[in-house]
Amino acid sequence: MSAADSSQSRFVELVARAERVLAFTGAGVSTASNIPDFRGPDGVWRTRTPVEYPDFMRSEAARIDYWAWKLEAYPRFRDARPNAAHRALVTLEQRGKLEALVTQNVDGLHAAAGTSKQKLIELHGTNSEAVCVDCNARESIARCMEHFSATGEPPRCTRCEGIMKPGVIMFGQVLEPDDLRRAKRAAERADLVLALGSSLVVTPAADVPLVAVRRGVPYVIVNRGATPHDGLATLRFDADVSELLPLVLGQGIPKGPVSLQ
Question: Which of 98, 113, 159, 217 is 20 to 30 Å from 188 at the Cα level?
């Protein structure tokens, strides 16, 4: 058996033994759905400087720049469909093995695939909604995109005329404390951690798997390119998540926990 086959077999075994899997996902899970990576070799942030939240709040020009970028990417997010990796994680939940799915992704594809609200924690928010920064009213992103496309003016809240922004956590904006607490509690209960398609450099989100790893929980990383957690991993795969994950989970998720001798 080759080293690669041995590692894959070990991955299957870890999943089969586990009862409470924490899945932590990043942009690499969605590249097969035609959603661009942000920090990979061809990532968006290699060619574009992100608009930060304080600038968005104080500058109309920054808001125009941000909405223009969102409008440019909108058709891709609107038309994207879940891929085999998203569906494999739904199967993991259906078989009763998923403690939580914590994602950095804002594309909404885990929800679209069928991961339940009870298990899904979108740490960086979602592109599928817009939110008013003044009254916290939420609505589908479509109306805001249509408004900006037609007028070139950043959309305003239909309820209070406040500033609307996509329902994502922008650079310079803090994560929702409740979401981060939920994620860390799930990590405290997990008996296996899968980091999938994440560069694991954006904190505090990337610290969530470490809550479990510090307890000695097995840690499997699947990502194209190195991560700062590689030295902590029980298994490390430089692979396409949408290809490897369905293959491994298809073999390693029987109904309920099993005992391997």
Answer: 113
Which one from 86, 110, 124, 229 is the annotated catalytic residue? 124
Confirm whether 147 is a catalytic residue.
no
Which of 132, 147, 85 has its CA nearest to residue 110?
Answer: 85
HSE, side-chain direction, 13 A CA sphere, residue 39? 14
What is the fold of 42-79+125-168? SIR2/SIRT2 'Small Domain' (3.30.1600)
Class at the top of the CATH hierarchy for domain 1-35+82-124+175-261: alpha beta
> Any idea how long the chain is?
261
Q: Rounded to 5 degrees, what are φ and ψ at 215?
A: -90, 0
DSSP alpha helix (H) spans, 35-136 = 53-58, 60-79, 84-94, 109-113
Give the global pTM. Answer: 0.88
pLDDT digits (tens, 9 = 90+) for 5-33: 789 999 999 999 999 999 999 999 999 99
Q: Which residue type sits at 207?
A: D
Residue 184's nearest CA partner among 156, 149, 210 is 210
**Please, are residues 254 and 95 in contact by the beta-carbon 8 Å criterion?**
yes
